[in-house]
Design goal:
- There is one protein chain.
- The chain is an alpha/beta fold and about 250 residues long.
- The protein contains 6 helices and 7 strands.
- Helices cover about 40% and strands about 15% of the residues.
- It has a 7-stranded mixed beta sheet with strand order 1-4-5-3-6-7-2, sandwiched between helices.
- α3 crosses α4 and α5 packs across α6.
- The radius of gyration is 27 Å and the shape is globular.
- Keywords: Hydrolase, Protein phosphatase.
- It comes from Didymella exigua CBS 183.55.
- Its EC number is 3.1.3.84.
- GO terms for molecular function: phosphoprotein phosphatase activity.
């Protein structure tokens, strides 16, 4: 009897082992694959979040907002531009909108754009996706438009304002006159976007846009900024920052 019991137990053990092998082979994937699946889930979560992380031309009514009255009681109002020296990122209060000029290719590889990418990598992820995934080479982001990226990078709580003033970059950038024309339209759209989250915005800081890698003299850009006729619900003040060594 003992030998039969041992034989029966061994048989059950072998069957259990064989069954276990089968369950492992046909059941849930090994840990490495599960980790990969989790990473993929996180990536999908990041992409889903990025869809909520910006405002752009699709968030503006097509009912002619640019043709709305520019002022109340016929009194026109222009932007109040103040000048500051130092690092525009350092000491910026929570809720600040930090503005720079961009190409429509989703490329932040040089100049002040590179600094934005280093300071705000998640904002760059959203911006690049908008330019390269939501749009394409045959249907690119339009120049003269803007994008407002909501705070996502740590505790900085800074909004990023992107002005699409040139289609390309480097040697293929737009001509200066075209960049200037795009700037007026882009900033007008950005101010409209900011008005939609105005209660969450504290101030607007801008670098000397277009004067770096786009090669447009700052004086020309400043002139067009001051020529914009503001809508009653738009912000009226912008701080322009340049580095101490300039």
């Amino acid at each position: 009897m003992p030998s039969q019991a041992n034989s029966s137990g061994a048989t059950r053990s072998k069957a259990s082992t064989a069954s276990g092998v089968k369950r492992t082979a046909a059941g849930s994937p090994p840990p490495a694959k599960r980790a990969k699946a989790n990473t993929t889930d996180e990536a999908h979560s990041d992409e889903a979040h990025s869809d909520e992380a910006h405002l752009d031309h699709t968030h503006i009514s097509s009912s002619g907002w640019l043709n709305a009255p520019s002022s109340q009681e016929g009194k026109s109002q222009s932007l109040q531009v103040t000048h500051h020296k130092g690092d525009m990122f350092t000491g910026a209060p929570q809720g600040t909108v930090l503005v720079h000029a961009c190409n429509t290719q989703g490329h932040w590889g040089a100049g002040i754009a590179k600094a934005f990418k280093q300071h705000y990598p998640k904002a760059y992820f959203d911006h690049n996706k908008f330019c390269t995934k939501d749009h394409s080479k045959t249907s690119p982001v339009a120049t003269g438009t803007a994008q407002l990226l909501a705070p996502r990078d740590g505790d900085k709580q800074h909004w990023i304002g992107c002005l699409f003033t040139s289609a390309k970059y480097g040697k293929r950038k737009d001509k200066p006159d075209q960049i200037i024309a795009n700037t007026a339209q882009s900033l007008s759209m950005l101010l409209e976007l900011i008005s939609q989250v105005d209660d969450r915005v504290t101030e607007i800081r801008m670098c000397r846009i277009n004067s770096g890698k786009f090669g447009v003299p700052w004086e020309k850009t400043e002139s067009v900024l001051k020529s914009i006729e503001l809508k009653p619900h738009w912000r009226t003040k912008i701080e322009v920052w340049k580095p101490e060594d300039e």
